[in-house]
Amino acid sequence: MSDTGLIFDTDLFLIRDLTPVSHDPSFPSAVKEIFERINIHHLLVIESNIVFGVVSDRDLYKSLSPNIGTKTETPKDAATLNKRVHQIVSRRPIVLPSNATIEEAVYIFNTHSISCIPIVDHAMRPIGIITTRSILKALSEKKIAL
Questions:
Q1: Are strands 96-97 and 116-120 parallel, antiparallel or unpaired?
Q2: Which of 6, 46, 87, 109 is 20 to 30 A from 55 via CA?
Q3: Contacts of range 114-118, beta carbons closer than 8 Å, 24 or more positions apart
Q4: Contacts with 103 (C-beta within 8 Å, 6 or more apart), sequence order
Q5: 52: buried, middle or exposed (CB in 10 Å: 19+, 13-18, 0-12)?
Q6: pLDDT one digit per residue (tens) for the chain, 146 residues
Q7: Strands 96-97 and 90-91
Q8: Run of H or E residues at 41
Q9: Helix/strand/coil for 47
Q10: Phi, psi of 61 (to 5 degrees)
Q11: Peptide bond connecting 28 to the previous residue in cis, omega within 30 degrees of 0
């Protein structure tokens, strides 16, 4: 195993089991259910088989009123449940090709306020994602060295 230049297609920290969504489903209820059901933190928004954007659990919770389900909930608060994916998706996400290095990913995580990078092929079709958690997990299991 190389200490530098490790590429994503080694599967050490690339998450290939994706749950893509379209920007058409009602949001956040459907996406909230997906996050909770499969215990994930990021969804790729796919249109015409290419990466359109990313919805994170942070995007979800920022879009909801904190008064949902409380005595002080108003119709305006309840309306936040009717937002669509396209209203809160992070469009045109930063992506990396499958031959990118771990150093490139770490640089992006350190210079942008993101926790997920879609890994794409030459046509912007998703291959998987890398997350800050997947890197930390690989480091803690001593599968990679920086």
A1: parallel
A2: 6
A3: 114/54, 114/90, 115/41, 115/42, 115/56, 115/58, 116/41, 116/42, 116/54, 116/56, 117/93, 118/44, 118/51, 118/54, 118/93
A4: 4, 5, 146
A5: buried
A6: 344 455 554 567 788 888 788 777 655 556 777 777 888 889 899 888 999 999 988 888 888 888 988 999 999 988 887 777 778 888 989 999 988 888 899 899 999 989 999 999 999 999 999 998 888 888 887 666 65
A7: unpaired
A8: none
A9: strand
A10: -70, -30
A11: yes
Indicate the angle between helix axes 102-111 and 132-140, nearest 10 degrees.
130
End-to-end CA distance of the chain: 11
